[in-house]
Amino acid sequence: xxxxxxxxxxxxxxxxxxxxxxxxxxxxxxxxxxxxxxxxxxxxxxxxxxxxxxxxxxxxxxxxxxxxxxxxxxxxxxxxxxxxxxxxxxxxxxxxxxxxxxxxxxxxxxxxxxxxxxxxxxxxxxxxxxxxxxxxxxxxxxxxxxxxxxxxxxxxxxxxxxxxxxxxxxxxxxxxxxxxxxxxxxxxxxxxxxxxxxxxxxxxxxxxxxxxxxxxxxxxxxxxxxxxxxxxxxxxxxxxxxxxxxxxxxxxxxxxxxxxxxxxxxxxxxxxxxxxxxxxxxxxxxxxxxxxxxxxxxxxxxxxxxxxxxxxxxxxxxxxxxxxxxxxxxxxxxxxxxxxxxxxxxxxxxxxxxxxxxxxxxxxxxxxxxxxxxxxxxxxxxxxxxxxxxxxxxx
Amino acid sequence: xxxxxxxxxxxxxxxxxxxxxxxxxxxxxxxxxxxxxxxxxxxxxxxxxxxxxxxxxxxxxxxxxxxxxxxxxxxxxxxxxxxxxxxxxxxxxxxxxxxxxxxxxxxxxxxxxxxxxxxxxxxxxxxxxxxxxxxxxxxxxxxxxxxxxxxxxxxxxxxxxxxxxxxxxxxxxxxxxxxxxxxxxxxxxxxxxxxxxxxxxxxxxxxxxxxxxxxxxxxxxxxxxxxxxxxxxxxxxxxxxxxxxxxxxxxxxxxxxxxxxxxxxxxxxxxxxxxxxxxxxxxxxxxxxxxxxxxxxxxxxxxxxxxxxxxxx
Lengths: 395, 313
Fold this sequence. Notes:
The complex is a heterodimer. Chain A is of the alpha/beta class. Chain A has helices at about 15-25, 40-50, 65-80, 90-95, 95-105, 130, 145-165, 190-195, 220-235, 235-250, 275-290, 305-315, 335-345, 365-380; strands at about 10-15, 30-35, 60, 85, 110-115, 140-145, 170-175, 180-185, 210-215, 260, 270, 295-300, 300-305, 320-325, 350-355, 385-390. In chain A, α1 (about 15-25) runs parallel beside α7, α7 (about 145-165) crosses α10 and α11 packs across α14. The model of chain A has no long low-confidence stretch (mean pLDDT about 95). In chain B, α2 links the parallel β1 and β2 (about 75).
């Protein structure tokens, strides 16, 4: 959604990785600890370039693994620094253990995830298997559809994270966004610097009164800590929205929890995460011209899950085609479809659901493919179907 | 700085009376590691910040809502304390450069032998290579004691643990102890030393020396565990002392790449004086494990010869 903005922008032609590196630099990060992994590596390289040229005001710690990247970020955040890292795929899997430590310690920090498939077999291309494996780690999870949105969401993430004391991961599709150059309307260093400010005061290891962090909690107390953590997540939508609104004031850009194209009056809505939402949108108007009432709903927030916004957007739809780029082996539905179904159930709503797995390991999804799926879903069929979609026409 | 002067601790009167570890924590009676932690914290001449790996020291000092730490302390996980400390140290540098922190504080890591020799060695190596200013202390009780006495790569040859039992086929642990000091030294750190809780002046001097360097330093501290080694809790210091006096655990330092034996043991006691106090080695004194005992003795001799040679070089 475009709104009036108060500051100048500079149009720059850059990849998503470059955009994210600039966002971290402009957000006056104190510490970056990161390790190279395709397709995130450009981010680390750019941060190193900034540091080498004296354009980065923080410390760059080139660690020996992603596990140590997250560990060093935790150490930095414990000392009160604003920290940033980026990873993908195997790297995210390797730091899995530490994701829970970061959120459990209630540490603000921001991580860009260049979403990529998981081994085996080895595949460096895009899907969402990596982040879905970490979806219950207590991080706020946001998804970008393009390089500019990744840039915007990273800047916003620092403010969100520091407002609710939870770590935030900004997801961007590997290669599709990380390595494709597009126009990004960058804000000035000053505008971003003023927007992010300095982190608000919180308890740190450098406080005058010594404090202990990461203590051992027995069965009498542990669940209370998790309860607090969940409350912070449940209370985060207000903080995220407020940061998004404020950011819209300086950038003219506000994404919100969901982005709808004709979902509200559609019979069939395709629910998606990430960059292929743009591909699906391209199929909407031509099909509507043929008389098929279809729409697309793309989720910008995944955790916290925007149940209310989703339900409002699809209230009139009879069929939801929920598109997953990861597999939940043996589960009744795949990850995003499970969430959508659970949100519907909570509201007492029942709709036909197609739980579709597509785009694994970078498998293509074209406008024609979106059209084929919309056509299929517009015909009458069983209340629930789950299948892998490889592309092409459907019977 | 030179190896003489400043840091030398000669008597109890030179030590600041400030406790940085409160009494009343949950460690077992006669716990060696807690003696090491207390002595090192008392040797520090300013309040450090502490990063602690998962392990006995961590669990006995930090059961919520009580803490035994009178200095800032953090525990994150088992294998990553060197990486967490890297972040703390780098953050202090960044905040100081931005004028938000007046002075950087010393960073001390406490990790056991499992957290150092085994699961934490990658993070340790990374931190040493990157040159973060920190004192990394490995309190070595030669096995995974917190999980109930399982062998680590710091467990000596022939020692009984629950995963290196002795029997008809096995003499106890079948492999030698890993040379962690050699591995640390290979990183070219400015200072690394071994120390024992039984030689407190030596230990505290080395801790002060280590803290004076602007770079990563390492202390490998011998810290007996009476539960795991099977001896009377009143004998902790005596067992540690005998490890030094039999040359089983030599006290030396590596400063600027140069080895120096800080306690030359000219007339070593028989190894049996050390082994016989402990249940974990008692089988080695039986006739059927004679060969294993000889092997262990040979390893002790070889280690001393090697160190003596490096110290002469």
